Amino acid sequence: MNFTFRPLDPLQDSELLHGWLTHPKAAYWMMQDAKLEDVERAYMEIAADEHQEALLGLLDGRPAFLMERYDPAHRELVGLYEPEPGDVGMHFLVPATDAPVHGFTRAVITAVTAYLFEDPATARIVVEPDVHNKAVHALNEAVGFVPEREIQKPEKRALLSFCTRERFARAVAA
Q1: Sheet containing strand 157-164, strands side by side
Q2: φ and ψ at 12, to 5 degrees?
Q3: Beta strand pairing status for 87-93 and 124-127?
Q4: What distance, in Å, lies between the first and last C-alpha atoms of the chain?
Q5: Could you read off the pLDDT of 25-61 as tens digits, one per residue?
Q6: pTM higher than 0.85 for the full model?
Q7: What is the 3-state secondary structure (H, E, C) of the chain?
């Protein structure tokens, strides 16, 4: 699958995102009860923040998933671990569908990880999914993430995991 990425437009894309984020499948995003305005506001804040950004992943020019990139030295993980130069935080969401395609989510996380490593300044990708989200733990492992430890974030107990460029290359070559 050939994915492309574009910056998310908080106003233009908020209705689409609202449907994705409030679906029961997106429970780990903790926006189940969000109103359209809440989604708009959350992504306007991201767009205005120099330490994070949201992108839409496109398949054949159509929105297929959401990706967020953040600087863990300034967002999400401040005080929860010791960031290293070149650390980049990431979230991704594949929306619910009535017609699932086998291997699609794995293709998405592979594309997201490859996209982040296209930046030569990225040395390591950091993720912090909910400890109970076993499906995403398996996907993370499939592309080279290694769990380090559990951490307590304000909103959840999370599994802090890291992926280096070398581990990613080995994982996708296997």
Answers
A1: 3-7, 52-59, 62-70, 87-93, 124-127, 157-164, 146-152
A2: -65, -35
A3: parallel
A4: 18
A5: 888 888 889 999 999 999 999 999 999 999 999 999 9
A6: yes
A7: CCEEEEECCCCCCHHHHHHHHHCHHHHHHCCCCCCHHHHHHHHHHHHCCCCEEEEEEEECCEEEEEEEEECCCCCCCCCCCCCCCCEEEEEEECCCCCCCCCCHHHHHHHHHHHHHHCCCCCCEEEECCECCCHHHHHHHHHCCCEEEEEEECCCCEEEEEEEEHHHHHHHHHC
